[in-house]
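Support request, please re-run this one:
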Amino acid sequence: SGEPARLRRALETLKAAREVGSKDRRVVYVVNQNLRATAERLLEQVKGQGERRVLGELKALSPLLADDKQPGFQAFAWSMVTGIRIDAGDSEGAVKASNRALGFVIPPSEAQLAQVIRQNHLGAMRLAVQSRSRRGDWEGAKALLTKMRNFPGGAQLAAEDDLHAARLVSDHRIGVRDY
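Re-run finished. Output below.
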């Protein structure tokens, strides 16, 4: 259940289970997996309270996780911050957060998470291109389009967005009579 008190109790129980120090690798693995899952649910729970709260939980929960669970968890948290910034209309900040998420070395066992983070990064860059274009910032939009072209899976999206960005810049310039 996602009930706040239950998640906190589950976290405390899992911390206690880890401190017992079982020698059975399966038990250690399951405890670490459940700690990670509980930590992610706690982040999901506080997401609506904003970026600062998510980052505070990240700071508090990260030390509880096994070393091999840290990169994926931190990337997950920064990907969540990307979404929060997108929802707030801060596409430039979303690109910065998604860059941070991409900076973590995610193990092959978490290939799906890595794919989601890459997709979120491309989505954030596309929104930032639109934002820059609407402001008439053609150079900034082109710079991001170039980064998109060089990012895995981004070439086709950049090609699709290029003409749209040019139109948005033109619309802006016509609107402000910058001929």
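The chain is about 75% helix and 0% strand. The chain has a mean pLDDT of 91.
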